[in-house]
Amino acid sequence: MNLATKSSGWEARPVAVEARGLTRKFSGKTILDNISIAIAEGEFVALIGRSGSGKSTLLRAFADLDDDAEKDGQLWLPESSSVLFQDSRLLPWENVIRNVQLGLHLSPAELRQKARKALADVGLSEREQAWPNTLSGGEMQRAALARSLVREPKLLLADEPFGALDALTRIKMQELLQSLVKAHKPTVLLVTHDVDEALVLADRVLVMEDGRISHERHVDLPSPRRQSDARFEQLRAELLAALGVFSPNNQLQHAGDRP
Question: How far is CA 119 from CA 129, 153, 170, 253, in A?
């Protein structure tokens, strides 16, 4: 069994998410191999790894979106969770505010109030009546983020939510997510290919390889985290080495294969 424990400084908080011996197979092929993990309430965990390592499968298990899998192991989750995908998944036939309200069962006045507050939090107050096909990529992800957080989830599952955005928009979305997580205080599991993104956002980074958690690192960096800091670069090199991108001499093993 490989066990990813709660990171240093979080031991006093109750556990929000726990898996023991979690295994997932598809058509007889093992994708998650006996994973055990505990995440504390309010902790932000980033999950990195090469394509096919099992990152998204683990997130889908936590989201209960893997009915087609052969399952084994135990899983404890909070009562409420939301999923933020790389694709915003906005309904094109509904305007922005209706997309944010989707699935909420409240009075019309409460729906408007909560949705408008969520849109204000992501800077889309003036776009509530807009149609999804008129939004930029960043605006679509802002709307998706509002839809995820309007429900006040105890667990936010984010599957490469900024992977399709340009570099500048991605930085702005990282800052927005960081501020909203601080305000709403959900437990977060973020799947990303970007080591720098993981180090900027997360309290703890887990590396997956062949369906198992192969490496774990608590990110003990002061805020705001700067990529130019020597400690940031040290942690980055450690994680890249864990991914097999850096050799022991800190030389890139595969040009263009940076996560």
Answer: 11, 16, 18, 44
For residues 195 and 202, the answer to whether their CB atoms sit within 8 Å is no
Span between the terminal Cα atoms of the chain, in Å: 26
| pLDDT above 80 (res 246) | no
- Order the strands of the 70-76 sheet from edge to edge: 2-4, 29-40, 15-26, 70-76
154 three-class SS: coil
147-167 burial: b if 16+ Cβ within 10 Å, else e: bbbbbebbbbbbbbbbeebee
The residue with tokens 């509530």 is 128
How many residues would you count in the chain? 259
| pLDDT bracket for residue 4 (50, 70, 90) | low
**Of the given ranges (7-11, 103-107, 147-151), which has the lowest mean pLDDT?**
7-11
Q: Are 244 and 51 in contact (CB under 8 A)?
A: no
Give per-residue pLDDT as tens, 16-25. 999 999 999 9
